[in-house]
Structure prediction request, 228 residues.
Amino acid sequence: MQAIVTCEGVTKTFGTGELAVNALKSVDLEIMSQDFATLAGPSGSGKTTLLNMIGALDLPTSGEVTVDGQKLSNLQQSGLSDLRLSKIGFVFQSFNLIPVMSACENIEFVMELQGVPKAERRAKSIEALKEVGLAGLEHRRPSAMSGGQQQRVAVARALVSRPAIVLADEPTANLDSTSALDLIDLMRDLNREHGTTFLISSHDPRVLEHSRRQIHMVDGEIESDTRL
Prediction:
């Protein structure tokens, strides 16, 4: 298997002088193709900051992040935007669906930005909803869906373009126990059936129990990295 993500000496400092906070401290990490890995650790351990570095949502103070063979330090803002659009799928704890759009339209939005023709967008969005168990809800808006259903739409949106990696930041945080377990099972199934690479930030023990790799962070550093 090849490395989809490589972090080499990644450091992130917020603020300057006496107010400086080292959110990440020389992190070295490889995420391999088809990994189903969890970044675990208490609040403030650096999980979300590391996801932001890998997702090209922010840049490290020092060190290098490489995603699917591209060094992020070599890219301008337009190149970083293109990489996020084509190589990375995002799932957030707050769902981040557009409320005035239907489930299908939310999924199509990313493909529209990619220039995918309308008919192809619609066909792919319907198929993506089937994959996440939401066939028949194509025209339903987020306000008419449960939290678990909204998060499934978010997963479908993240996966529809077959990105190199899906980054999920606390995806079960706003879900009840049943919906959370259903979502974890769904992501595991997609990982097994399609080989989709997942990196999930979570301190939810239910997520950790289903992970094949647990990366524990403390105070901006990787304390342990265990394959199960």
The first strand starts at residue 3 and ends at 14.
